[in-house]
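Good morning C.,

I know you're traveling, so I'll keep this short. The sequence:
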Amino acid sequence: MLAAPAAAAPAPAATCTAAAWSASAVYQGGDTATYGGHQWTAKWWTQGETPGAADWGPWRDDGGCAGGSTAPAAPTGLTAGTVTASTVALSWTAPSGTVQGYHVYSDGSQVATVTGTSTTVTGLTAATAYDFTVSAYNAVGESPRSAALPVTTSSGGSVPPGSGDLPKHVLTGYWQNFYNGAKALRLSDVPTTYDLIAVAFADADPSKPGAVTFGVDSGLSAQLGGYTAADFTADVATAHDRGQKVILSVGGQNGTISVADSTAATNFADSVTALMRQYGFDGVDIDLENGVNATYLAQALHRIASAGGTGTIITMAPQTIDMQSTGMEYFKLALAAKDVLTINNMQYYNSGSMNGCDGKVYSQGTEDFLTALACIQLQGGLDASQVGLGLPASGSAAGGGYQSPSAVNDALDCLATGTHCGSFTPPSHWSVRGAMTWSINWDASKGYAFANTVAPHLDTLP
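The tokens, ready to paste straight into the viewer:
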């Protein structure tokens, strides 16, 4: 009776350089792979046969691997950069531990193996949703996969990211999902003079850091004699039928949502994306007035834009103090998300005096305050198509900073053509994206004086 041959002793420990063994890969004789903390060499053609030390198997054990005894942790911060009709640029944060490389997956299938923390996936189909994940590997094995990143490729058209089919110049208004004395409105009551409706506000999800929820406010519903989530969803569809866009605003004076790490960024982005799909929102507005983290909120906004695809609308409404210089965290956020930012509607109210781009101090409630502070954003790196002037609709809508709608029009003219200026004359001509008002409800209480004055004037700008 013949005894089975004894297994050959493995070679001394080595520094493993081969990629991790994959059950789906084909290995020819002489090909190498790492598995279970060892490096292995294929003796002949093999596929799907787990490396083992038996002499009659297809693998030869080249010895244990130096430089680590555990598989790495999962990569974090998976983010999409440029998205086209057939490609998606991905980047991520390296995990702790020894890492030899990364496997990139699309809808569960491996599409790339790289050694760095970024890659561009090619050969994709236009206007198609994909879920991307990434794992790290070393000689010991492969990490768990990262959280999935949903990305929709573009349609292949020429519409810039974030524009959707918004007009060249846009009037934005906030619709109040609460009652505070301003006229209570159904969403479908908003006149078509408003191109973009920002629904104020989402609520923090106490069960997930960074996540948000949304529901129709009971106080508003009572004022309207009953207004349900189904009514609201139907009204979003009505607004779409009329050519208006509807986005969900996050924050406000009492907003307490914090996006300060990768987990919160993922929770924020995924919860916003889910609400977009549930209610039909076209994007998100960032109106956080209690501080932002530019790094992680930009990561979240890119994730939202990737999931929503071309046409996802992303706006911001920082306070004046937040945009005084490019070193301010909100300004850093605007620049970090510039490739997906639709409009930055700074709030030129509840402010007090601020510096203009010429170093002079200007008081709120004046045309110079609008033009000299807009100049800071325009000189600081934002495109004119990304800058809007945010004003209260009436004296009741804010604690200070109200000025007449005609003064808003003068400021728009001053920035665009150098006409109708106050004492400040901009150093260049910028035809900015439009204007915003807080709020549509306060405007309704004043007979829509703001919208009826500013909206037709926007159509005259170059």
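Safe travels,
E.
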